[in-house]
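Continued from yesterday's entry.
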Amino acid sequence: MMGKPGFPDHSRRSLLPHLPLTLRVPVVVAGLMILVSVIVSERALSRFDATQARHFVELGNAYLDGLTPALVPAAVREDAWEVFDVLDRSRGLYRGLELIETVVVSSDGRVIAASDPRQTPVGSFFHIKPNVADATASTRLVVKGEVAHFQRELLQRGIPLGILHASVATNALKAERDAILWALILGNAAVTIGLSVLGYIAIRRMVLPLRTLSQRFATGSARPFAPTDMPHDNETAQLFEGYNRLLISLESRERLTRRLAEKERLAAMGQLASGMAHEINNPLGGLTTALETLETHGNQPEIRNRIVSLLRRGLEDIGRVVRSTLAAHRGATDTRALTSTDLDDLRVLMTPEINLRGQTLGWNAQFDTLIDVPAGPVRQALLNLLLNASHATPPGGAIHFKAETEAGLLNLTVEDSGPGM
């Protein structure tokens, strides 16, 4: 799946996505060390092969150089016994060469003598055809499998007499090269493993403070680090101190937010209290007048009944205002299901504020079922919305509230005729 232009494609996974950082870094370092070791080992083996081949050729040339002067007179006479004697005496002089066979061949390809006459009889034709056409070097080297063949032309005053052929085993060279190869492999593996373990331990110790800090962030812990928990290196210690300062700043902000919320709640309650005092004072004044009338004309049944009815209505109005105020003051502690009566209490609470500002309040909150939401928090939120709407609406404006249910959901709407945001 292609990523969007301008954004990173998160579908592309990293090379080692599931390893922790303490393992990922040593693994990457070990991989780089293995790559470097392979390159260095290849170059070292190449140099060793070149040096080994040069020394081998030099040793072969020295062997041929030592035989050639002694063999030329015997080769001129084609004296097989003298040639065999020279070859036999020279076998113990060059222990660095694992000689298999040395053969002196005449110019027509016949064997003059060999170090092993039973395998290569005198007078037989040699199974490896001499090649003396290479005029660029005095010695010709042919390697076939684990055997190297040296060829040297025998000359007498510029006249070819034959070929000196020496077969040498290369097993020792191969064994020496294999030993060096395994030494390089095992040495590099030991160094890589050792450094990887040391790197893992070092990275683990370096990342341990960061892991502690990430766990604090992941768990949402608001506990600052004690001075004894601070790391010793300056960079990580500064990071821990920054975390502590962040916690202090967040705590200060939370305290300020709670203080402001409490102030706003108290201001709203004070505003409501002033409106309710005005709302309660009016019926209290009427009740006082009614009592004075009852004291004066209480002996008249008609007047007494009218005054008693007036007193009852006035007390009911005061009781309704007090009950609504108490319900609003309980707030979030009231967790029972919401009813339409709870919303009617808000209408009573808003009436003094609406009358004080000369506004009108349209109210439509009729539903018969219980709504499975906590009555206290919903009513407190609606009261704040209605107060904000009243503050945003100019004198003489209108505020509309509507509550309706649909498919078990409660929709609450507050509108005002203010200028807007």
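--- second protein ---
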Amino acid sequence: MPHGRARLTAFLQLLLAGVAQGCVYALVALGFVLIYKATETVNFAQGDLMMLGAFFAFTASVALGWPYWATILFALGVMAVVGMLVERIVLRPVLGYPQFTVVMITIGVGYVMRGIVTMVPGWGTDTYQIR
């Protein structure tokens, strides 16, 4: 049985990890709200876009050995370009179509991104950690 100090340390670590995870969930929810308010459609590819950004950050951090701040800037830059390409090539041509069409397209974009991630060597479906 851990002593008082070890229990306090474990409690604080779990508390901070839980707060950090809650902040991530809040950011995801805020993203859904912002996208819905701006476009009046639900984007089901949002989670897959976040996953793709995380894999770019993972690649820069682990495979390229970049520092943490450069990793984040790299992932933000690449995902800004990916987001613009998805909007211009996939979503813009269906503006004016029924809302269901846009929802189905975002689901399809999500499937495509998951497929791409599983095909890239070094990414796959395993769980990774950015250090």
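The CA atoms of residues 57 and 73 lie 9 Å apart. The radius of gyration is 18 Å. Will compare against the first tomorrow.
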